[in-house]
Amino acid sequence: MSKANYHFYVTGAIQLGVGYGVVSLIARWITGNTILSSPETLMKYGLTGGIGYSLMGSLALILFGLLVKRIRVVYVEHQTIGDVLRSKLSPIGYWYMISILLITSLYSLFIQAMGAGILLHLIFPIPVFYGLFIFLFICFFISGIGGMQWLHRLAGVNVTLIFGAVIVIPVYFFIQEGVYPVYDGIKLYHPYLLFYKNQEAIWFIFTAVLIGFGQVLIDCTTWQRVFIIQKEKVRMTFTLAGVIWSTIPLAITTLVLIVLFGHGYKNIYTLLFQLVDKIQSSLLIVLFVLFCFSAISSAISSELHATTVLIVRNIIELFRKQSENEKWKWTYLITGITCLILLVIVSILSPIPIDLLFFFGNIYSSIIIPMLYIVLSRRPLPAIIPFASLCGLLGGSLLIPIVGNMQSIWISFTISGLLCFFYYLYETMYIKKNYK
Description:
Blueprint (H helix, E strand, L loop, with lengths): L5 H6 L6 H12 L2 H43 L6 H8 L2 H33 L4 H50 L1 H11 L9 H19 L2 H9 L5 H12 L1 H14 L7 H11 L3 H38 L4 H25 L4 H7 L1 H16 L7 H15 L1 H4 L1 H31 L1
Helix pairs in contact: 2-6, 2-9, 2-10, 3-5, 3-8, 3-10, 3-11, 4-5, 5-6, 5-12, 5-13, 5-14, 5-17, 6-11, 6-13, 6-14, 8-16, 11-12, 13-14, 16-17, 16-19, 17-19
């Protein structure tokens, strides 16, 4: 890649069609959180919860796909979500939204790095710090130096390994064990997994879809894909990506059921270790390891790239005009510092992925209506629209001790939505009054 043209680092050299656009989106959204949270959701909410987790990402991509055609028509010269926000918001509103984007992007990076650290510890007998250092160095090389072109090149390989693993490994096990013994074993040892009238699981599904849509709606990486997929094919691409993505959590759920059917378990991480131990074929073990690290490396590399571009293009560029060489220097520096921070934090902390999902759920749910308002409005907006999400976030978070995590997420969504609705009524009445 020529360092004389930073534009190619951001967008790549070509516009993507449906096939490669789907591959790029799948490579972004099959993450460490998918690998770790799918089994955890199954154990907590049963098969209904496992199905619900697959709906979370699937419906999120499909719903966002309903917006992308308008985004491509209205925001013709833009390349990132930061460009869109800058064109529609006042300075204070813009910087608030940029802060939210940075927080959620760093959260997403942390989840991927944490997943890599856990899997490294389970699969290889080496300290987490050293394994994670090597892994993050590879991600730095792909995203910080290679940019979008390298992400495009590796996406096809990553997705091939992912689907190869989730198809071949379950088929291998079912041929070895049979379908009915697995079902009978689950019914004997874990009958609660088959209970489908679980109201808490149904509530989880709706809440997860809400969180997933908010997550996709402000994901910097996904917005980059919006602007590099061919305009006439962008909606179909997101719809197909959503449908295909839903098969991955279901396949991971199947793998967990295969491990569980003959005995109990200690925790979700021992299940993953038992899965590796149960795969007796060396070729399948290698395939499973490649699946895990292909998924996580593609996700973290994409997120690193998008976060770096956001900082260089939508933060630093506003304070000083940069030459092409300066942009590259900032890119290397920001990507390296981010990787170093992830290495230190993940080596110290080890939270549960699904708990983090709901911890940030209030942010994602409260941002949905304000973000839709920003995208769909025809004129610049005052700070009250983005700050409606802050009111929703604070309102829902304060009520967590009283109503619980899932209910607070809906409260955050409702508060921010009502504030945006009241502003819409005020704006409509004000315009009509001036028109008369």
